[in-house]
Amino acid sequence: MNTDLDIRALLQHSRGVITTLQQPNGAYPASPDFSAYRGYCWFRDGSFIADGISAAGEVASASAFFDWCTMVLLRHETQLEAVVAAARAGMPLPDEQMLPARFTFEGDFGADDWWDFQLDGYGTWLWAAASHVQRHGVDPASWRRAAELTVDYLISSWQRPCFDWWEEHDEHRHLSTLGCIAAGLRAAADGELVGADRAAKASVEADRILAFIESDGVSDGHVVKWIGTTAVDGSLSALIAPLGVIAPESDLAARTLDAVERDLCVDGGVHRFVDDTFFGGGRWPLLSCFLGLARVAQGDTTRARELLEWAASTAIDGGDLPEQVDGHLLYPERQAEWVERWGDVATPLLWSHAMLLRLAVELGLAAERDQIATEVTA
Ligand code: BGC
């Protein structure tokens, strides 16, 4: 999978996987057939998928996802308002009454138990929607009420510990979660998603989160996985790019990415974190792409290209990309228990395809966003 031609074919395939599996109401399945994910759409995966496909010029697909987010949030408006009211009254609701990480395609909670209380996706959808508006000039008016509810929800609750990107450790406050929330509030503050009053409040709160990240979320010059540890997490690259929460030219970015490369990256493949036992703890192509995006932002396109090629090399016959691959498992003895429990690794994972596309656009390998946008509006 090393030639431009192969990568271009894989990018075309990625575009098709995302657009053909998207539901008529805009929901993106995380992975269509994987036992534990079937029938659900995550705010986290979906927002990054929408951002990837938006950058690749599929304007209608990304807009439809934000329509879906709006439908879901309005459907649960009473609960969102209850969370905000309780927090304002100094009596925050318990975790079980917070909004979940994933919903059925119809916008319901679903009947299966899950590690549901996660805040990151609520920031990520705001960030992705605002980026889409800016990139393609679409009108966000129909998303406004949902964006307002989300801003209030995040302002009321960002300080709470919750499950992280990997749906683990709800006793901690995670830096990638805080980064997604800060990016979402900053996007709401600077973009057209919400009115002036809320934008001003979002701006103040985004600054508070950034200050907190810098004061409490740094060890040895790099951002950490959660408040109180010295370890890193593969998700932290996203804070540099595409979320833009940490300036790519800063020492903080340099040291964070160097720590991710040193502790988690093997031959271009990035692990989630050193204690990862899920499916034995393999390397995730989507994390190689996040690292690649951060390297592009720093100006290192050579390293970014290597990371893209590694991610592309994980495609199976036919071009589908998995959630993770083995070859360098952190805990090989823990792989079988997951296969027994949930079946083979989720493939295709739409988020993997989206991140490959997103990095390819940044490297000028996928169709240019402006060119496609012109074609769409012409
Ligand atoms: C990952 C999550 C992801 C979900 C759906 C989980 O295994 O830890 O980050 O949102 O799968 O793709």
What does this protein structure show overall?
The chain has 378 residues and is mostly helical. The protein has a single domain (4-377), classed as Glycosyltransferase (Alpha/alpha barrel), CATH 1.50.10.10. Helix content is 54%, strand content 4%. The strands form 3 sheets. The chain has a 3-stranded antiparallel β-sheet. The protein has a two-stranded antiparallel ribbon with strand order 1-2. The protein is globular, with a radius of gyration of 19 Å. The two termini are 34 Å apart. Residues 369-378 have low confidence and may be disordered. Bound molecules: beta-D-glucopyranose. Beta-D-glucopyranose binds at residues 30, 37, 42, 44-45, 165-167, 349, 351.
Low-confidence stretches: 369-378
Percent range for β-strand residues: under 5%
Largest sheet: 3 strands, antiparallel
Based on the structure, what is the oligomeric state of the protein chains?
Answer: single chain
Q: State the distance separating the first and last CA atoms.
A: 34 Å
Using the CA coordinates, give the radius of gyration. Answer: 19 Å
Structural class: mainly alpha
